[in-house]
Design a protein that fits this description.
Blueprint: E1 11-15, H1 43-55, E2 60-64, H2 74-87, E3 92-97, H3 102-111, E4 116-120, H4 126-133, H5 138-151, E5 154-160, H6 170-180, E6 183-187, H7 199-202, H8 206-216, E7 219-221, E8 231-235, E9 241-245, E10 258-261, E11 266-268, E12 276-278, H9 280-285, H10 290-300, H11 324-327
Parallel strand pairs: 1-2, 1-10, 2-3, 3-4, 4-5, 5-6, 6-9
Antiparallel strand pairs: 7-8, 8-9, 10-11, 11-12
Bound molecules: S-adenosylmethionine and iron/sulfur cluster.
Length: about 325
Amino acid sequence: MIDPFGRTVDYLRVSVTDRCDFRCVYCMAEDMTFLPKRDLLTLEELDRMCSGFIAKGVKKLRLTGGEPLVRKNIMQLVRSLSRHLESGALEELTLTTNGSQLAKYAEELFECGVRRVNVSIDTLDHAKFQKITRWGQLGKVMEGLEAARKAGLAVKINAVALKGVNEFEIESMMTWAHGEGFDLTLIETMPLGEIDEDRTDQYLPLSLVRSRLAEKYTLNELTYKTGGPARYVEVAETGGRLGFITPLTHNFCESCNRVRVTCTGTLFMCLGQEDAADLREPMRASESNDLLYEAIDEAIGRKPKGHDFVIERKGEGPAVGRHMSMTGG
Ligand code: SAM
Ligand code: SF4
């Protein structure tokens, strides 16, 4: 699949549920209304849709959410998708998780060919963790990390940089992650969906975080890429990798290789734009995949050049109305 700007699209992120067992302050309002279950694609439909994308050239597939591991019988989907790893059509099957259920599933994920997971942790302080996630427990996530290690899964930690919250903890998180053998990727808050707080109060530019770290550490630019938008440095003093996802301070759209599908089968060609294509109807309209492929081609044909995020000014609404938990991280 090649878009109008000559970019090859070979990376699909699928949000398998909009539900979550956490309520992170930058992601969701505490009182969220979730989609009625009947609107969701079934696991069989998710499999069919992912397989369709793989047939069209997707090499890397990431399951996300909401929290992917709270979707009922999710391992049924993972196991079934693993056939594409075995055939060689798919190069990587991975997921982004909050880690709350990882202790339960790590081993099975490895068995299904998953080799890497992204686990989101914004702080190592138990009380702060509970405050950020509202409903989460850091201890459970730590058990999940241990299980991942035992199972042989490589872990990348994702942390959203939050002004005044984990701002001065980033260095200790980095030394912890690198000491554990995990990469750490920092993310800027993006203006997605209504939340209970004001994002201008949360936004911490990573350019600032990076220059602070550079006063103390040697950050060597790497060409290393994971297929996502992070730019990496190697930290000479720790020997570990540190990634920066900077949608606001540095626009990374020129190398965008991915699209996203929600759990209702809506294809978003860009995380930061409203334009979308429905894949559920074309899938349900016929048993053959012709209509599905037609809808995918038509949508890729209008993948936009990029997003135009700016952090909302105080009091203004978010740039994009839907939450990150709907489109998936
Ligand atoms: N529940 C899983 C998790 O937390 O890893 C997967 C879905 S979550 C939406 C994916 C990633 O998006 C997480 O790392 C989360 O911290 C990040 N995220 C959520 N809302 C965000 C926002 N408004 N701006 C930037 N990152 C956000
Ligand atoms: Fe749930 Fe992930 Fe959003 Fe936190 S960031 S509320 S864990 S979907």
